[in-house]
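Possible race condition, two jobs.
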Amino acid sequence: MAKTSAKQAESSTDTNQVDISAPEIGTSATTNQQPGQDSDKVEISIEKKLVALFSLQQIDSQIDRIRIVRGELPLEVEDLEDEIAGLETRVDNYIQEVESVEKQLHDKQISIKDCQTLIKRYEEQQNNVRNNREYDALTKEIEFQSLEIQLAEKRIREFTAQLATSREEIEAAQNVLSDRRNDLDIKRNELSDIVTETELEEKSLIHKSEEQQHFIEERLLTAYKRIRKNARNGLAVVGVERDACGGCFSAIPPQRQLDIRLHKKIIVCEYCGRILVDKELADTVHI
């Protein structure tokens, strides 16, 4: 008797290719059903529910893929914006540093001129000193100003080298900044194009998903959404592939595979909890 039911289920699946746009949940396969065939009616109802669940899964998976593709680009755009902001801050810091060093360099040049002026004055005063003590004092002042000039010249060399390095850093940062701005423009345009291209498709898929949910009883729909939420890849309904669950790839015993093919009840994977459908039923779903 079980074999007969299995053959009836397989025959019904093979001869009734289901389009997900209008699955007939809860209806009988034929209009001339004879009394006493209630079990067949329940079987077909369960089969149609499984088709609706698998169809809903295929639609929701397409929506997930659209959102994943679009979800990566905003992150890339955000990363580029952060990098550009960092580069702009770095360039601004280098510019402020250059301005500060240039001011110090200018101050040292003025200091050298002041020292040279003082040396010249002290040398003139040496010609008019009245004793050796005044001469020695002026000599020490001349030596001190000479040391100040040497120190200022050393600082000028250091500042000049620092300026050269800072300007090279500014140029390099500005080149990178220019490249990143170009990358940002490309990513923004790409994101805009993807949003424009996928927006209508996503809305259409969402509408199909909502339509499909009307054919699934609330209890099953709640279970489906809970499994999808907990599954890493968002798969709540999977097919049996190579005698294993299509979600966690755990082996399924032959008797349980037979129960899945009979479509008499909703069967879930013992390991991951996903709803299981047989390959024949999955092949009837066309998106």
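Job #2 (started ~2 s after job #1):
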Amino acid sequence: MAHQILQGKKGIIFGALDERSIAWKTAQRVVAEGGQIVLSNAPIALRMGKINELAKECNAQVIPADATSLTDLESLFEKSMEVLGGKLDFVLHSIGMSPNVRKGIDYTSTNYDNFLKTLDISALSLHKVLQTAMKMDALNEWSSVVALTYIAAQRTFPGYNDMAEAKALMESIARSFGYHYGFAKKVRVNTVSQSPTITTAGSGVSGFDAFFHFAEKMSPLGNASAEDCANFCTMMFSDYTRMVTMQNLFHDGGFSYTGVSQGLIEDFQKAFTPTEVGN
């Protein structure tokens, strides 16, 4: 059920690739709640995905932009304000990619040129988005910027590789820029730490399927779905959260604060209980 909590608000959704992606679900939810959007992704991602289908559904324009390019970002914000008829009220940063992960390079054998690309694409891009928006005065007061992250920024998950460092840096950028943007324009900046989610990007992480089921059993509420995350991001764009900024918000069914679940203990007990063998 929609309540039109974003009526009159407009913004940019970065990172929608296909119908499984959180950005895709968020775009749909934002529009259902009365928001107007521009969709953006890197040119290569636009060729790989189905974003034109989403654009048609959401009556949205697609504006290609490499989020690591200041020139592209300036053009994106300028065109977005033209298309939407004024300054923006929200931005979703759903951008992340690791060449090391894609090429199957182990963390301890990290290729450092790849590592720098990971940091640029997955973390520094948020700084560039915020810097460009501030420089161009593209966001209204009390606007909301949300970036998607993961608990590997705080805890070690071996298969997450150098994306863990990227997410940690991104969360720090959100706090630091949130301070400056808050004082300057009352713009709030937060990160949402989502459950492992079955998306094209998430499924590329080594051991994802096993960990997805582990997290499902560990979390009191189970894993939060892409649709759940879209609802949460939409709420973060609304005026109901106008005093929330510089926070890393765990949206993971309670996984982040659960030491171990009874269900997992029982599974471990079964696994380590010797099987009786008859004579």
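The chain has a mean pLDDT of 94.
Logs attached separately.
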